[in-house]
Amino acid sequence: MLMEYVDVFISGLTNGSVYALMAVGLTLVYGVSKAFNFAYGSFYSLGGYLAWVLLAGIGIWGGYISVFIVALPLLMAFGYVTEKLIVAPLRSRSDWEIKVMMITLGLALFMDNFYQVAFGSRMKSLPPIVDGVWDLGDIVISYQDIVILVLSVSGILAFRWILNNTRIGMAVRAVAQNPEGARIVGIPKDRVFAATFAISTVMVGAGGVLLAQKYFVSPTGGWDILVKSWVITAFGGMGSIQGGLYAAFILGMLEAFVGYWFGMTWVLFALFAVLLATLAVRPQGLMGKWG
């Protein structure tokens, strides 16, 4: 029994770390632009399909190391171009946040149908990053979970370093805290919006690569990730990166134990129940602030 609970705990910790990586990206975009990206889940699927094409289709040399080297710049370029072509033209219009929600919803439907046409409706599977397990007697931990946890946490730490120690990171923080003040001091808001969109695409796409080996890649699989990322963002506090990190690990653990005790069909019910209970007590979320 103890070994089973340890396995569930490790699964929750691993999934929570990847959810944190992805939810922070969604929180970043909302914190800077106050617009919600409905295509976020489709960007997750894009990361998974890129990994599948590189590994199963091309058979790229170097395994997952080469996958990350190739896929991450492609994801960043895709996010940047998408923001410039689709989101940026709407920014000068009234109620542009609502229009962004609508157009990214359309983009998500387009991308999902493209995946189905290009790759078929059958789910794709990927090999693990590493094989083998760490045998600790009664406790057995797969090396795959350890690597996913390390890579996810490394990605989060790298993101925090960029925010705190680079010019673009400080510009992002300034625009998120005071958009008008950032404009007055000469910070190019359009570049910041494009950069945050590109960074968030990399983060959710990287999550797609990491989870593709544990779960299947499917044309509509991104909607589940979109829902979970939204729940984490709202639970942690809209626009609060620190709150999103806490919420991701909490809900990752909740998902693992609810799935173990009651079955996976009860996971989303439990997530929304916890979200609604939290918002009833703290409408601004765990770490959010009143606007």
UniProtKB/TrEMBL annotation:
GO biological process terms, semicolon-separated: amino acid transport
InterPro entries: ABC_transp_permease (IPR001851), BCAA_transport_permease (IPR052157)
Keywords assigned: Amino-acid transport, Cell membrane, Membrane, Transmembrane, Transmembrane helix, Transport
Membrane-traversing stretches: 12-32, 52-79, 100-119, 139-163, 192-210, 230-251, 258-281
UniProt keyword Transport, yes or no: yes
Membrane topology: Multi-pass membrane protein
Family from the record: Belongs to the binding-protein-dependent transport system permease family. LivHM subfamily.
Name of the molecule in the record: Inner-membrane translocator
